[in-house]
Amino acid sequence: MTFVILGCALPAYKVWWPFFVVLFYVLAPVPTIIARRYANDFENNSNPCLELAIFITTGFVISSFALPIVLARSPVNDPVIQWGACYLTLAGNIIMYLTLVGFFVTFDQDELEYNTC
């Protein structure tokens, strides 16, 4: 979040349009969380509900990377955001989604207990 806020608030940029990626941060894990809650336990077979949720989540992730690039590539004479703000927002995206992946990987391990040696 620090990189996203810096991309918006630094005196060189002063435009808060890149902050809309926070909406994607909130929406991205929702389909996967819902699908895992209602999904049946299929060990070897594919689960269509979970696959659809992963597809929708992928759409949110790609959109969060595409939004700052599209805003920076707007008309050359007057872009909506500068490329520096775009790079800071993309760095924030990478860190945020790596955190979400780490969260899902850590808490998906049902058979492991933390207090065993």
From TrEMBL:
Tagged with keyword Iron-sulfur: no
Keywords (A to Z) from UniProt: Membrane, Transmembrane, Transmembrane helix
Species assigned in the record: Frieseomelitta varia
Lipid bilayer topology: Multi-pass membrane protein
Family affiliation: Belongs to the OB-RGRP/VPS55 family.
GO biological process: late endosome to vacuole transport via multivesicular body sorting pathway
Gene Ontology CC, one term: membrane
Chief location bin: membrane
The name this protein goes by in its record: Leptin receptor overlapping transcript-like 1
Subcellular location: Membrane
Segments crossing the lipid bilayer: 15-36, 48-69, 81-105
Keyword Membrane assigned: yes
InterPro entries: Vps55/LEPROT
Lineage of source species: Eukaryota, Metazoa, Ecdysozoa, Arthropoda, Hexapoda
Pfam family, one: Vps55
